[in-house]
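Two folds, back to back.
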Amino acid sequence: MNDTHPAASADDALLGQAIEALTSLARQTRVRGRGTPAEASEPVDFADLAAQVLTSVAANLGGVETLLAGRPGSWEADLVRRLIEGTAGEDQILAWRTEPYRLHLSVDDVFAGFRIDELYDADLEAAVEATYADGLSDEQADAATARETAIEALYQQDRDAYATAYVDVARDWLAKRGLTTGVELVRTDYGHPGYNPSRQPDWNVLNDALDEHARQNTTLPQTGALPDFSNGTPADAIRAAGRTYAERVDQAAAGEASA
């Protein structure tokens, strides 16, 4: 048995607040047989309340193993693990959350994994080079610059559209597992408004499973279809569909010209 006093390994003030709150909870009473001749007051079922508290804490952290990561093999961890698993069951711990689910997403990382960033970089580089071509008239130079700007804007549009679709898929996945507290999106794209490297997520099994599901089931704004790896990468499928950034910008310009 570990003889170290709990206060030696945790913040004293915070631990004191937790003890105070749990002591107050344990001193509460409940009424049996209310409104009947047998009505009587009795202590609360503290074991049940303690199980609820620990299960909600584990749910807020992302799961029981995340909660016990400090010393997962201890006898205390084994008892806590059994208590939480007995309370929440195997797949419904999210129903015990008291906080919104904080969803960290870097669309840049996703697009890099799909090689879409390379597709964009190649189109943008070609568009930039076109602005420096020899012998351009003022009108042609303006058109080349506008095309470069349009490609950049379209990529930003796609990033935001993908983030919205990703959250919708994630929210549905979480709701099916009992989440009722909502989802808070934290964009971790470098350079995105609100980007804060100190808010990077602590990944756990739940986050990994959610991210894998969302990446596979989020529609890509470039094609309006799910990521296609059947003939290479999703970027290859985008090329095959004629939906590169340069092609989409040129198609949009042609549509405006014919309108």
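---
second:
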Amino acid sequence: MSKSAIDTGILLETGTNELEILEFYINEIRKEGEEPVPNLFGINVAKVMQVIETPNLEPPESAPHPSFMGTIPLRDLILPVLDLSVWLDLDMPKTERDIVIVTEFSKSVTGFLVSGVTEIHRVGWGEVIPPSNIISSNTDAIVGLIDKGDYFVQLLDLETILTQFEPDDDREVTRSDKRYNVLVADDSATIRAMVKENLIESNFNPIITNNGDEAMRTIFGLKEKAEEEGKDITEYVNIVISDIEMPLMDGFSLTKHIKDDPVLQKLPVILYSSIITKELKHKGDSVGANIQISKPDLHTIPQIAIDLIEGGAG
């Protein structure tokens, strides 16, 4: 399955709070002697380059992680292949029918070994149920559930997995002379912790929310509080920083709600995603986002935030 075969319709209208997901499965041996049971997952179609047959790799002894299976050539690239079942703690039997989903996001191309793919679904972020204790996985890479009637699809955040392979950076910390309040929205616990740590180190006071819906309720609650106390909204929040892909409400819809409000519209909004394409950037621009950056550049957020706040972006 090539990119051209799966990309029809991915450029959904701005503000529709929708996305398209590629549904795939990982077979799991739950009891010895019984047939494997498929576990259904989904990822954003926009991150998928193509789907290829398994290269039948044997993991090297010096693998940096148990999921690392080696590298393969593809076009003019050499890309790593990761066994996704290892991350999800599933006992997946390897067969000749397995496939590799080749993804491109966060400025990197990576292959993920799975048992197979099924179909593509268009869903609204409002249909994505936030993760809860009912999910039987030990990873926060699962960011939501999609109810398809007779089964659930678990939505994966592959960026969370790739952060485990990224080396620690000793970057110089940007510090604000003034302590600003920043509202953060992200559905990934790993990314939330990373952004929160960076902001605290830079002398910001982060207000953390788990998705766009929670962020919207929080900021409109702060607006109401400011109005009741006769204060300006900037005494409670100075800037909004949000992921784009989130359950219940995405970053585009959150930004539109903020920029359509006569009180909140002066607050600068930074959107980030692992896939800032020209088309997606256009969508962000159309809802009034001030800056859009890719997730590998999250370390630049504090300086960008300071420049936007002190530059009077609106």
